Structures are given as C-alpha cells and as structure tokens.
C-alpha cells in the first residue's frame, strides 16, 4: 500500500510539476490544532505549498530515528526547547539562518523582536508556556495571594499546596519567594549556598505539599479542594478555568517560562519550503492567531498586541498568556544549560530531601 | 535364546534371523538405537514447536534486558569520541599533571567532537561524574569550532577556567575506559574521591540505599497484609458451594481485570482529605471537620492501594491449592481428638504452603518493581526505588544509572528467590 502510494505520488509529480508537499510533524490535540488552524491552512492558502500535518507523542523522538536511519520524511517539526538544543548538539538538525525571519511591522528586526533565547542555531520558537502559581478564589474571600512569597505563607493563606515532584521549577520559585529577583535566580542557584537557601525555603512548607507527577493532577487537586494553591503549567489551569468554569486564578508574578518551536531535521527533503514555512509562521500575525487557540503566548513582542479574542468566545485571550506584558513583569526564563548540567545532582538531593 | 519367553524379542529375532541376543526391529536395526533415534526425532520436533516462543523470548526479553544491563557497566560516550586524550591517559599514570601534550590531545579531540557534533554525548558522560560540566563541553565546542590556536592550555583556559579543575581531569581519566563501576557505586550512594578511593557521598545526596531498604520493607509489609486478608477469602472460596463461590470469584476477579490506573485513581477519590471516607467519618461525627485524616500521598496510601491491587495474586494461588485439599484429613484429625485450632495448624495449614509460597513470592516480587501506584499516591514518604529508575530513564536520561539500579534490584530479587528455594524448595511452588 505504502509503495503504491509512493508510486502514485511519484507519477503525479512527473505529470504535474507542482510544488512539493511540506510535511510538518506536531503534537496533536489542542496544541496541534492551533498549528493547523493558525499556521498550516493560511500558509497553504498564501503560498500554494500543500502542508501535510501529522502527530507524534513527542516529535523529537522520531526525528532522531529518522536522521540516523537516513530516511527523513519530515520537513519541519515542533519540539521542546530542551530537545531542540540536545538534537542540535548531536548534529541531527539543519541550521536555520536567523536572516530569513520576518521583521516586525514597525520595522524592528526579528532578532530584537523575539524574546531572549527564542532563536538559536537550529530552533525558532513558536510559543511560550509557563509554570505559574494558581489558587482557588473561593478559598480566599478576602485578601488574594499575589506573589511567590504568598505561596509560602501558610498563615495568611492556609491550606495545602501542590507542586511538581522534582527539583526543576521548585528551587527557582523558592528563591524568588525568598526575595531573589527573577534576573538573579540562576546566579544564586549556581552556588552551593543558593541551593541550600532554596531547600531551606521549601522546608518551610514541606509538610503541607502534595507532590504531583502528571500535568492533569494540579487542576484536579484544586477542584477537589485537596489544595488551595497549586504550582502548575498555565495551559492546564486555563483549560480548567475556561472549559469547566472553575474559580481558578493565576498569579503571573514569578512565572517561569519555557519555549516550544520549529526545527528542521538534517536532510529534510524540502529544505527551501521548510525554511519558508518557518519564516512565515513565526511572523507576528500567524503567531498572534495561534495564541487565540491555546493559552501559549507568542514569543515575539510585536505579536502580543495583535492577539484577539479566545477562539469561539467573547473574551480577550491576552490576559491568559504568559507573554502579555503585564504578566511578564517578574518572569523568569528557564535556564536550559543550568538544568542540563545539574538535573541529576539536584534531583538526587531533592529526592533525598523529600524522603528525609 | 535368552529371551525366548519375551514375545516381542521372539518376533524381532525371528524376523531378522540374527541371534546375538540384542533386540532388533523388523528391519534389523538394534532396538535401543532405533528407539533413541525416534525419540530424538520427537524431541527435535518438540523443540521446533517451541522454537518460535524461544526466539520471541530471546529477541524481546533476553537481548533487550541484556543490552540494558550492559549499560550499567559499559559506557563509551567519552572513550569512543576522545581517542587522543584516551591515549595520553594510557601512556601517563594516574597523578601525572596534564602537560602540553595532554592539552593538545584534549583540544584535538574537542575540535573533532565539535565538528562531528558528538560533543554533547561526551559532555553528558562526564556530567554524570562531575555535575555541571556538560555545558562546559558544549560551550567550549561551539568556540573551538570557530578555530583554536596553540598553546592549547592557555587557549582552553581562556574559554573557560573550569578546564583546569583536577576533579574534571580525574573524571575524564575514569571515563577513558568504557568499562566502569561508577554507576554501581552511585547506586549505593558511594562515589570516587579525587585520589580514586571509594567514599560515601555527602549525606544530603544519599537516597538510593534508603530507598532500597524502604522498597523491601514496604513489599514485605504488603505481602504480609495480602496474606492476612487473602487467606480467609481463599478458604471461603474453596469451601463454599460452587454457585456461591463462583459469584465470590467474580468479585475477586473483577478488580483484577480493571485497569491499574482506574483502581489507583479510585483510591485517590476515596482516601483524599476531601474524599469519600473522610466525608463519611466527618458526617458520622467520628472526627471533626478540621481533623480530616491524611490517608493518601504518603506511605499509608501506597500500602493501601498496592495491597488492594496485589491481593488477587495472593488469593488465586491459595485458592487453587486449597480446592485440592481433601476435607476428610481435617475431619480425621478432629475425630482423633484434635481441637479445631490444632487441626488447622497441623493438618490444613501445612497443605496450603505451596499456594502460600507462590502467592507470597508473586506479591513480593511484583511489589518490589511497582512504580505507577507509588508515583501517584506515594507523596514524599511512599516513593520506591522504581520511581528513581523511572526518573533516570525518562527525565535525566541517565540510562546507565537506571540500569545499575535495576541490576541491583534484579540481583536482590534473585537472591531472595535463591533463599526461598533453599528454605522452602521451589518444587513446592504451585501457581494454580
């Protein structure tokens, strides 16, 4: 069947020399849908290049297999930042020249328009998601928590907390709650004293924390009333609040953001079209459009103002995005190099601390 | 004729006309050899029949597990990509300060690895021993690709002071041979000091030994509880009339057939602080609204959920053994004057031992390797060693470490199996 398909495609191409299809590998689900609606369909309409979308649990995994087997059937793939860096270090990705990226409408060069770290040798970010603090508004009728320090304040804001079981994000949050400005967090955390300080801060609420493992757990724990505050991915909280009408509020102060974006596997068959796709979809207008489908923010500053209402609703999406300026006042970009280096060591210590 | 009275011998010898006293078939071959041949043919045929299964097990079970375990003592991430430096280590004994030749070898290797894009692999390997060095390799690699001039020592130190670190050089020397015991050392909270001796890691980094102990202790507790709960049920199942016991059997099997995740999450709904059980207790007035019990996200939750999930593995072997126990033995004991307790202790219970052994072994071994349930309901005090293996497999991607931990776990289970065999005897095992 596959052979027949390949044969008929080949015959079709000989008969009518149209532009080649572009194969894009994404994640499926609501996120994949945002790629289809905001990127693939309009790109096809504009350029005439047919885009075929397919899904993977994590597109980084098939890329490694494809490139090593020398049979690259994907031209563009959506991967997490950490995977992009790793794949790039292992030589499995094409380099993307930042010069191809589209300048903003007011003339700001792309390099300045993207937030820091959003464009690397092999990677161009499409969206930003973040770890945020969230609370059940019905549990705090009077004063509302508003900072990381409030999360650690069990007297003013009683009730259990839920945090991700692991060192990443929690150590940063603890330092910010302890008064370290976002910009200095990783500097402090690189010193042994800084790590001690973070653990000491975590110790103050240790007995009142339920540790979550799967991303779906924190909204559930909030909804069940098991916890009053949660430290979770913003998309999960947004979905529970919007989709199920739960009274969950997000505290953007101290959010830690990470990026996802496009990479081109080494040896992609339609390299030129792939680059065209990357450049077009990371221009401000499509980025703003994608953010209307899912609460992940555009990584370009000029796109932020262009985001409209939540798709199918009469409310603006902007307040729900990690990248909206008001939400970015005390935001921290997750430091990938730091975690690649220290992940194992700090997780061992974290687990030892957890068990003691 | 010695065997004249044997009718078969008579036939054979008569038919072939030979009379050397050996039994022969109709076509004159010695019977023993013909029998052996036909038996070996049957054996071959039987072997061919199981061959697919054997190949299946070999391909899907033995080879992958073997390869995985090999990672625990074999990691060529550094040695395969840094040949020149490896050679320098071979030529110079431990304790030699790196001279210009060493720095040149390092720079050459870094340049080649950066070009081949293998520097990430090299850095990852060293990072296992000296945390914080992966980025040293990758960032140096990026700069070296733009070109590097001798003298290499100064050039590399200018890129990053970290290259002078003696600990880094010691780690690179250790990694320059692919065979290593370091992962096993780390799996028992040990590490190598700069001079190569084995020492315990800092106290706040120690976690694995404690988790191994906890895993075995919790598994033992769960095995004992499943026995206490399962034994009466199995007895009831085995002694009730068929119709009633079939109904009860369905009740045992229904949860057994239900997805593990469904059962685990049901326990979360039941046991959490705002959950069903706490609600009922508060409603009954047993506890006040403010003193709701913490029954999940701790060790209690792990024990409750795992006991429930593993209970059928205890009940089923016990049941299958108890069903075959002849009730007249106990009756005979009673008629000879034994009290019901004595009859149970000396007559009935010893006969259930094969089932009990099988059940206990099954439950214990399954409990030792459990990880989804403790991950979801274990909180901080209900974590088991398998959660660490999963973390190394999926988060830190340190598969060598995961393999070392798994190998230790496997070794410990095999040791227990051996002890069991010596004490009870594996022939006494009845799985159903």
From TrEMBL, chain A:
Keywords: Signal
Alphabetized Gene3D superfamilies for the sequence: Periplasmic binding protein-like II
InterPro entries to which the protein is assigned, alphabetical: SBP (IPR006059)
UniProt xrefs under SUPFAM superfamilies: Periplasmic binding protein-like II (SSF53850)
Protein's UniProt keywords contain Oxidoreductase: no
Signal peptide coordinates: 1-20
Cited Pfam families: SBP_bac_8
Record's protein name: ABC transporter substrate-binding protein
From TrEMBL, chain B:
GO CC, any one term: plasma membrane
Localization: Cell membrane
Top-rank lineage group of the source organism: Bacteria
Membrane topology: Multi-pass membrane protein
Residue span(s) of domain ABC transmembrane type-1: 212-420
Keyword Transmembrane: yes
Main location: membrane
InterPro entries, A to Z: MetI-like, MetI-like_sf
One GO biological process term: transmembrane transport
The keyword Transmembrane helix appears for this protein: yes
Pfam families: BPD_transp_1
Residue intervals passing through the bilayer: 46-66, 216-238, 245-262, 303-321, 355-377, 397-420
Keywords carried by this UniProt record: Cell membrane, Membrane, Transmembrane, Transmembrane helix, Transport
Family affiliation: Belongs to the binding-protein-dependent transport system permease family. CysTW subfamily.
Protein name: ABC transporter permease
Species of the source: Paracoccus subflavus
Organism lineage: Bacteria, Pseudomonadati, Pseudomonadota, Alphaproteobacteria, Rhodobacterales
